[in-house]
């Protein structure tokens, strides 16, 4: 099957999305439709041979044809009108704002354009880390202790270390580990540069971390390998690049069946009746034999391809099980009854 | 100030939104821009003199000019291009799907078109009654006991009466009060006609109910009168019509200052850091001196105008305090650093 890759977005993760799209281009040989959303909220149709980072950083994309979404697809202007661009199912690969915050999901659903990616409800509940904690709690999934703070909050932290995160950001931007009171203010300032809402969370050094991806298709959940991510380069600049450009398969982490089942069970609690239509990655901690949700990546870097034994088949499977938009028609029964009632 | 009224939508509340828009036309004398979203997701510009229910039920609107949203406004086609329609701040008056589920909020925010109404996060958390309960619980606001069921759920109800509600519907459609086991199946079937997710909630006969509306402007919350709604016509067809077409002011309910403060305190817990930009109405129960949230109306019928002493001033106030969209620009700093790193 063929897919279209939608990437870019008006967000702090704009550039990471370009890296991610270039990675998927390498993996999906017959994909040749690339749709770039720039930081001015304009869509451009990008030729496959131009899918290189310098094409975007040099702003060369501005010379490419502008396209725009409307009912049932993307269109471009012609001399006296417009014509539709034929595009196969879209993969929403816009990380962070626009892509993960529900804007693009809403737009595509409104115009009835099929896509692989989280729907707007799933986006809202996973984009904001406070809402993710609320969701986890509601669905019986553990999270580490945390507090939510704003710039004018009276902030009191008793137990260090903590990890400070902007509430609404998908990557590692603005995140710091804080070991003592003295470091707190600087780290908070850094986080508040990205969001007016910040999460302060318990940080347990050397906690075991496991990543698991999955998706729903043909009436069941399909899981990826479980990976134990390398942590020594945590928060490092190159690490982020490597994460979003990964195309080589990983190996299953060395864990017991019991731990694997615990991870799958928690993934299922988060995913079911919310993330259908999307390939997501959940990052978990295991501590004292208990599983904690760290975060949900509703559009993981390069779609977590490296966690699946056969990634193209994964995409084919999910693309046949996408949620259908509602088909409500106005009957005007109510207004007609009112008219009759008023006529009495 | 002048406003534009956006109404209609692809939803079960399509017709109620028309009733609501006609009510606001009467109240806002100098409003002359009406934008109708039909059940095919097309926008039409409706003349003020055509704002009558029969104009829509007879499908006469189809002859009016089609318009469409893009960056910074609504546009219409001309012979060789397009022209922008000058529209003042929009009031999102699409009840139910599209309006209250986050679709329209996302669309308007994406295209940077100013509007009064809940933002997408607020929509998602108030449109689905399960998520509303989850939010209330997270923010320390009580709700009555409930369970969430799906069509294939094993459903067990021990204590009657209960009230059955489709999870994602803004008006009284599909709702029934169930007194015993025998009535349960029929009522559930009725609710499942509207949504695959249904809420079964405790029903306390003759419980005290109070409605309170409010909005945030000029750095503080502004509250409406508190109303004790008449309940004898509950779920009745005419009641719904009367509710959405109300334009006459109500009187403050006969309550103590203590109860009033309890309602305002709970309203504030729900509204703050979520509903900014919107005039919402919260419906509360008071039972054994405890306040329970019944539901949030993020776009109440005719915008709950009848609860405000001076409704036009309310709209003027809120329109000067609308949330601003982010203004993130791509710097390509990251991609340039990668290029340098790779060149090493």
TrEMBL record, chains A, B:
Coiled coil: none annotated. This is D-alanine--D-alanine ligase. Its main location: cytoplasm. It is found in: Cytoplasm. It catalyses: 2 D-alanine + ATP = D-alanyl-D-alanine + ADP + phosphate + H(+). Pathway: Cell wall biogenesis; peptidoglycan biosynthesis. Its cofactor is Mn(2+); Mg(2+). GO terms for molecular function: D-alanine-D-alanine ligase activity. It comes from the Bacteria. The keyword Ligase applies. Belongs to the D-alanine--D-alanine ligase family. Keywords: ATP-binding, Cell shape, Cell wall biogenesis/degradation, Cytoplasm, Ligase, Nucleotide-binding, Peptidoglycan synthesis. InterPro entries: ATP-grasp, ATP_grasp_subdomain_1, D-Ala_lig_Van_CS, D_ala_D_ala, Dala_Dala_lig_C, Dala_Dala_lig_N, PreATP-grasp_dom_sf. HAMAP family: Dala_Dala_lig (MF_00047). Residues 133-326 form the ATP-grasp domain. The lineage of its organism: Bacteria, Pseudomonadati, Campylobacterota, Epsilonproteobacteria, Campylobacterales. Its EC number is 6.3.2.4. It is an enzyme of class 6 (ligase). The keyword tRNA-binding does not apply. SUPFAM superfamilies: Glutathione synthetase ATP-binding domain-like, PreATP-grasp domain. Cell wall formation. It holds the Pfam family Dala_Dala_lig_N.
């Amino acid at each position: 099957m063929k897919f279209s890759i939608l990437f870019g977005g008006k967000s702090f993760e704009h550039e990471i999305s370009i890296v991610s799209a270039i990675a998927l281009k390498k993996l999906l040989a017959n994909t040749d439709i690339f749709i770039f959303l720039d930081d001015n909220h304009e869509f451009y149709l990008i030729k496959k041979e131009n899918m290189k980072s310098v094409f975007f950083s040099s702003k060369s994309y501005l010379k490419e044809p502008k396209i725009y979404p409307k009912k049932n697809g993307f269109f471009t202007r012609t001399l006296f009108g417009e014509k539709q661009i034929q595009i196969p199912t879209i993969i929403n690969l816009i990380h962070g704002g626009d892509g993960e915050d529900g804007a693009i999901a809403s737009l595509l659903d409104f115009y009835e354009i099929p896509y692989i990616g989280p729907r707007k409800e799933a986006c809202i509940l996973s984009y904001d880390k406070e809402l993710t904690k609320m969701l986890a709690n509601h669905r019986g999934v553990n999270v580490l202790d945390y507090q939510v703070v704003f710039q004018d909050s009276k902030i009191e932290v008793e137990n260090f270390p903590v990890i400070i995160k902007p509430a609404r950001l998908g990557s590692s931007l603005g995140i710091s580990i804080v070991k003592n009171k003295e470091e707190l203010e600087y780290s908070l300032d850094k986080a508040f540069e990205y969001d007016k809402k910040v999460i302060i969370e318990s940080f347990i050094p050397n906690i075991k971390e496991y990543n698991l991806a999955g998706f729903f298709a043909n009436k069941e959940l399909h899981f990826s390998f479980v990976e134990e991510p390398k942590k020594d380069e945590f928060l490092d600049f190159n690490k982020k690049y490597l994460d979003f450009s990964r195309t080589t398969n990983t190996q299953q982490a060395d864990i017991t069946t019991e731990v694997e089942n615990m991870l799958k069970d928690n993934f299922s609690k988060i995913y079911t009746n919310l993330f259908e239509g999307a390939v997501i990655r959940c990052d978990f901690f295991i501590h004292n034999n208990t599983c904690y949700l760290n975060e949900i990546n509703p559009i993981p870097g390069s779609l977590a391809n490296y966690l699946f034994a056969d990634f193209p088949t994964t995409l084919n499977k999910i693309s046949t099980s996408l949620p259908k938009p509602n088909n409500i028609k106005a009957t005007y029964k109510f207004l007609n009854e009112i008219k009759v009632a008023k006529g009495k």
